[in-house]
Amino acid sequence: MLLQIRPYMLQEDRTRVQSFSALVSILANGDQTSGAFNVFDAICPAGFSTPLHIHYLEAVAVYVLEGVLTFFCGDEKKIAQAGTYIFQPRGTPHGFRVDKERPARVLYMTVPAGLDDFVMEHATEGYSDYTRDAARYKIEILGMLPE
Question: Greatest CA separation found in the chain?
């Protein structure tokens, strides 16, 4: 059965939440896209980093709007500046670290949707045990990013 997705346009009325110390604007969530994808606009503070982790359900696409990030994808380490696009297939260990001198802003998309629920959960519950929580979303936390 094919789901019908309704078109919509988002202007200023965005859902903005503080999640894992990043300010995240949800541009498209799983409900709006019938589970096809979700898109976030995230402002990450200077020095912010994700853990090294694997998404088993989603592929991840990131577009750097502002700032400088160090990306880890598989065995590769790359510097990403504004205008850089990164694709991380599901099942690939990855993570990123924001430059220590200034914040960064990224568009972050996962296909299919689902990560939006994880982000919203941590906007309301705080950090709790994010390793356990991530496992419920089929995300494996591998540890800190390499230097």
Answer: 50
Closest CA to 21 of 94, 81, 73, 98: 98
**Which range of residues forms the domain containing residue 85?**
16-143
Q: Is residue 135 part of a domain?
A: yes
Q: Is residue 7 part of a domain?
A: no
Instruction: Tell whether the model's pLDDT for residue 121 goes beyond 90.
Output: no
Domain count within the chain = 1
Which pTM value belongs to this model?
0.87
Ranges assigned E (strand) in 12-75: 15-19, 22-28, 38-44, 52-55, 59-66, 68-73
Rounded Cα distance, 135 and 121, in Å = 13
